[in-house]
Amino acid sequence: MLSEPAQQIINRYLHLPFKNLSGVGCPYFLNKGNRVRGGLRALIGKGSPEDIREEAMIISLRDKIELAGLNAEQLKKFLVDHRLGVDCSALLYYALEAECRARGLGKLKNLLRFPTQNPWRKLLIKLRPVENTSVRVFAAPENSRAIALAEAAAGDFIIVLNWDPAEHYDHIMLIHDVTRSTDAPPVLHYTHSLRWATDGRYHHGVRQGTIEVIHPAAPLTAQRWTEQGKTDTDNETFTRAQRAEKIELRRLKIL
Known about the structure:
This protein is α+β, with helices and mostly antiparallel strands and 255 residues long. It has 8 helices and 8 strands.
């Protein structure tokens, strides 16, 4: 299982830190296609739970909306309508940042390698590491290595590259726990941020699922995936993984 600080990050995304409304999960928001550069983290899908809460408070004051008077469904709608949410790579960054610190490894941005020699880009990465750490950065061989299912541990991640060839979408999922027993197959428990086509406008965001390893020597897509009570072709995370150009279990080299 992940360290307590990393678990707390995940829990705050699952239950955003709004007073009296602890059951509101963080929406999914992907800035791709919006052409917003240099914006506030909370407005481009890169905010921490606290960033998102603070920006929501600022917007509510501007628009004279009393957030304390909203129920959970209304608050989720407010967040989505104002493009407040997190994408998959930012969620992973904050959780692994907390994990690295808990293990005494220091800041994640100092442990990753970014493929650029441009001095200006290097400065941007130093100043805005979360915004510049994509799925492809985590997946780069300089930063992580592929591992077998039998090796899976908390802190590992699953990369799903180019699951939509038309849009070139990538995805990443954090393994937050692995359960093993002598009389049952191992189960990988994952956390990610995603929007299914069946979610509609407001029901997407940070959530969790499991991958039951029923065929240890087979690929990830040969295992049993469960999320939102859905399995097999009813599980959109699984079907996207099936049609991806590449899907792989990886581990940061520094862990």
